[in-house]
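Sharing a chain and its predicted structure for anyone who wants a worked example. Both blocks are below, sequence first, tokens second.
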Amino acid sequence: GRNSTTDEIRSGRPSDAVTEENVKKIHEMVLADRKVKVRELADATKISTERTRHILGEILHMKKLSCRWVPRMLTPDQKHERESTSKEWTC
């Protein structure tokens, strides 16, 4: 048996796929092609589609809308327009 209780170095993929390098690469790819697929991003960064979706949604705050990746946050103009439209419909 082993005498040490610490983990030994293992070969294979690193356990943490959400790295600054992967986030940057995914962000650059999405800016270059808003219609890029999650599978293509995952293949390019060699991480799972689940981790790729996590980076897109939780870190880059993007969502897929009409086959394009768009920022999830509204601009001040969009917020104002949304409020105006909402007030018109409720009056």
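Comments welcome. Strands lie at 62-65, 68-71.
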